[in-house]
Design goal:
It is built from three helices and 29 strands. The protein is mainly β and 400 residues long.
């Protein structure tokens, strides 16, 4: 009899735990909420919203509802430098002004993603949204016919497509064969006392090593990978890079970039060009175009070197397009020596010249992380809302 009661006690306790967990999960689905203050005069642009996941729930898909209205939109779990969050895209103008409350629950079923990844020719990772191309990452060594063998390279983005299907980047341009879409490179890399040139791919090159993540959901697609900078004798620097590509809006698309560099075996110096230009860092080579305009927060810019401002934009009528479109690059305020100077060229170049003429020492065991946002938009910088989009990047919306 005692044994029977003992067993019943275990079963009863387990049932109680099960019911408690079920009740907790049920209440969690409906009861969690977060508040956020929407500015009184919000710009009519999409921006990112981040929310701490309720109870650290590991669900990948979420449903967010504005309390008191029927407005709902999807959320997707994302890993950030500040920890796991729920990411969403919102247009503040659609949500009104003042403080709003969001009800948060896990999606009842997996939400379809508009994004698809595809591997092409064993060296390109293509990303599309609703069947339309978005961008390609070149991870295998690549060269086109008629270009010298020493220009062969990998680990950059090309092409990037505008919202209407136009290509906005260039690769292997005849005036600068080494320019390559959206890329990270420095003309001065000092390894073991030898000065090498990652910019011109001279005695040092990047090699793809492994994928870290390829994921897609209702809000964004994300891919991350490890590369290494190879000299003729060894791996000198490990490079980890993540790209988070959000759904396009009416005016633009957000692409967030996070780059981490770590010296291996011994410290490595990196620097911009040794001449006064100081170029090298985060670089964008636009596609062939007409009616080129470069804009910063200070207004329209001419060709210049090392002028400091937090963002710059290149807009034009790109080859094959009928209307103007453009690309802005935003520097994150946490980046070293923010804001860095720029290398601006109307023939077709937009580059964050960091660290410029002052070498930076990559120390072993002390990785360096740099973050940027790329804003691909319709129209020029004004029509495309570059200034407002930058402010929303700096003042990222976080619901509490």
């Amino acid at each position: 009899m005692k044994l029977y009661i003992y067993k019943t006690g275990i079963v009863g306790a387990l049932m109680a735990i099960f019911l408690a967990l079920a009740a907790c999960q049920s209440s969690e689905k409906a009861a969690h909420s977060a508040k956020i203050d929407i500015s009184e005069n919000p710009p009519d642009l999409i921006t990112t919203l981040y929310i701490n996941p309720p109870l650290q729930n590991t669900s990948a898909s979420w449903l967010l509802q504005v309390k008191g209205s029927g407005h709902t939109f999807p959320g997707q779990r994302i890993s950030t430098p500040e920890g796991a969050k729920i990411a969403a895209l919102i247009n503040p103008a659609e949500l009104g002004g003042g403080a709003i409350t969001l009800n948060i629950e896990t999606a009842a079923q997996k939400t379809d993603s508009p994004f698809d990844f595809a591997v092409r020719d064993g060296k390109f990772l293509d990303l599309s949204e609703d069947g339309a191309p978005v961008l390609s990452y070149v991870y295998g060594m690549h060269l086109i016919e008629g270009v010298p063998e020493d220009r062969r390279r990998a680990n950059y983005i090309h092409p990037i497509y505008g919202l209407d299907g136009e290509i906005v980047t260039d690769d292997f341009p005849e005036d600068h064969y080494h320019h390559r879409g959206l890329f990270f490179a420095w003309p001065t890399v000092v390894v073991d006392g030898d000065s090498l040139d990652l910019w011109h791919i001279d005695n040092i090159e990047k090699r793809f090593e492994s994928w870290i993540v390829q994921e897609s959901g209702p809000v964004f697609a994300r891919f991350g990978l490890k590369n290494a900078w190879h000299t003729k004798t060894r791996r000198a620097v490990e490079e980890t890079v993540y790209f988070t590509v959000y759904r396009k809006g009416e005016k633009g698309r957000i692409i967030d970039v996070e780059l981490t560099l770590e010296a291996l075996d011994s410290d490595v110096f990196i620097a911009g060009s040794s001449d006064p230009k100081g170029y090298g860092g985060c670089n964008f080579r636009p596609a062939p175009s007409q009616e080129e305009v470069i804009t910063s927060e200070l207004g329209e810019e001419g060709d210049s070197d090392l002028r400091r401002f937090p963002w710059a934009d290149y807009s034009a009528v790109f080859e094959g397009a009928e209307k103007r479109s453009g690309v802005s690059i935003f520097q994150h305020t946490d980046n070293m020596n923010f804001p860095a100077g720029w290398c601006l060229r109307h023939y077709g170049f937009l580059g964050v010249a960091w660290p410029g003429n002052n070498p930076y020492l990559l120390r072993t065991g002390r990785p360096l992380t740099l973050r940027y946002r790329v804003w691909v938009h319709r129209g020029g910088a004004d029509d495309g809302g570059s200034a407002a989009a930058y402010e929303m990047y700096v003042n990222t919306m976080n619901a509490q």
